[in-house]
Amino acid sequence: MTTPTPIADLEPVRRRAEQRAWYWYDWANSAFVTTTAAVLFAPYLTSVAEKAACGFVTDDDKGVKCTQDVHLLGLGISAGSLVFYIVTVATILSALVLPIVGAVADRSSDKPKLLGGFAWSGSVMAMLMFFVAGSDWQLGAVLLLLATLCLGASLVVYDSILVDIAEPDDRDRVSSRGWAFGYLGGGLLLAANFVLLSVLSDHTETAVRISLLSAGLWWAVFTIVPVRGVRARPPVNPVVERGGLLKASFGQLWATLKDLRRYPVTLTFLIAYLFYNDGIQTVIYAASVYGEKQLGFEKSTVLLAFLVVQFVGILGALGFARVAKRHGTYRVIMGGLLIWLLVVVAGWLTPADNVVLFLCLAVAIGIVLGGSQALSRSFYSQLIPRGREAEYFSLYQACERGTSWIGTLIFGLVHQWTDSYRPALLALMALFAIGLVFLSRVDPRRGIVEAGNVVPAVV
After folding, report:
1. Of 56, 57, 344, 452, which has the highest C-beta tally within 10 A?
2. pLDDT score of 104
């Protein structure tokens, strides 16, 4: 009797294909995160607000400053602090909205489709930023708020898919490659916009608006790849709640929040991440405003610095993953935070108009940025119970890129009190220090076991 030939297990091949498709959402949304949120829109909206308040755009090199406020709901707001207050409000709203998004995602049988819905909604808001012109800062504020919320919602779903497509020992690699791919995509579009700004140097506002439109289009088009390339999966061990999807999701959310006390290590890491990632996000978000308004660089110089960050970030993300494979993710994250403290001090000491030091600072940020964020994502995925990934990642996303609120609030307030961005930047050291204190209290192996997950060979 002939023994039948066993059929090859094709699941690893399918997983690799899904991982490659999953990377494309980092590529897609990084265009908005880099070109719009990090580089162009903050200083552009600040200039629009200054024009509304004073009738002109400031020229710090010549000592001309706008000292008037824009007014919202009867409150006077410094034009230079406006963007940071908007991001603060967006994050407070995220804290209310994103956990519900996570609960819905965990009960959804088609996460890729849900990802696409949020991503395409955000990309529409991003494209509409093209119409922000003159002194119409109110339109810009609303679009930034909505785009930031949609980005956060899409990332809740996107990050939760990591658990479905990668085994525990493989998540550092997959997460880091996603970040690296995102840096490449965001960097390429930023390079194209750099050329555009250089060519249209006499029409800077038009070039900025076209760049904002391109970021929204990029986000929309490349989101098609993960939506089509990642398989829909049924929910895993959802909490049984009566009622429709939305009602059941509220019930699941409440159950998870009560259950969080069973995972003290997870909670401790989440608190640490809240603080240190707020510091990271605020440094990145404020860098363009700091470079233009405090150090006196042209938009093209600031954009060049971000290009350096993007392409060095590719090597940083992949390099940190290799080091983590040998020495453990937890230790590498701790080391990365110490480097961030040095980066903040270096930024505070950087003199105005010194392009070389500014670009060296960009290199340092690029090395540590991608690695610390990619490894934080994969490390957190080990600390959450199976079946509640999206819901737990919604809490994670409340303090993820572009949605930090403590740092932006501190930065905005210190600037308003001192009329200088230097002390505002230095104040961010407190966030990294507090994050390090909480992170030092995390026991990785205990946290992974408490969540019911398999402990990787090296943590």
Report:
1. 344
2. 84
pLDDT at 230: 95
In the chain, what is the greatest distance between 2 CA atoms, to the nearest angstrom? 93
Sequence letter at residue 309? V
Mean pLDDT by 10 residues, the chain (459 residues): 56 90 96 86 84 64 57 71 80 79 85 96 97 88 93 93 90 91 90 88 89 97 97 75 57 67 91 89 82 83 84 89 91 94 92 89 88 90 84 73 66 86 90 94 93 84
| Neighbour tally for 420: CB within 10 Å | 13
Indicate the SS3 state at residue 410: helix
Between CA 101 and CA 253 the distance in angstroms is 10
Contacts of 171 (CB under 8 A, 6+ apart): 162, 163, 378, 381, 382
How far apart CA 194 and CA 199 sit, in angstroms, is 9
In a domain, 63, yes or no: yes
The DSSP 8-state label assigned to residue 32 in this structure reads I
Residue 107 burial (CB count, 10 A): 20
- Residue 380 counted as domain residue: yes
**Contact in structure between 45 and 141 (CB atoms under 8 Å):** yes
Distance (Å, whole) CA 209 – CA 211: 5
Q: Which residues partner with 64 through β-bridges?
A: 59
Domain that holds residue 89: 25-238+262-450
Which pLDDT does position 403 carry in this prediction? 45
- Number of structural domains (the chain) is 1
Assign 48 to helix, strand or coil.
helix
Residues near 195 by beta carbon (within 8 Å), at least 6 away in sequence: none
61 domain-assigned: yes
Whether 244 is in a domain gets the answer: no
Q: How far is CA 413 from the centre of its chain?
A: 22
Label residue 313 exposed, middle or buried (CB < 10 Å: 0-12, 13-18, 19+). buried
Q: In this structure, how many other beta carbons lie within 10 angstroms of the beta carbon of residue 426?
A: 15
- The C-alpha atoms of residue 459 and residue 457 are separated, in whole angstroms, by 7
Helix, strand or coil for residue 428? Answer: coil
Query: Which tokens belong to 365?
Result: 């940020």
List the structure tokens of 397: 């996303």
CA 72 to chain centre: 27
Q: What CA dihedral angle connects 15, 17, 19 and 24, to 10 degrees?
A: -160
What does the chain come to in residues? Answer: 459
E runs forming strands in 162-276: none
Q: What is the CATH number of the domain that holds 325?
A: 1.20.1250.20
The string of DSSP codes covering 225-245 is HHHHHSPP---SS-----SSH
177 contacts 88 by C-beta, under 8 angstroms: no
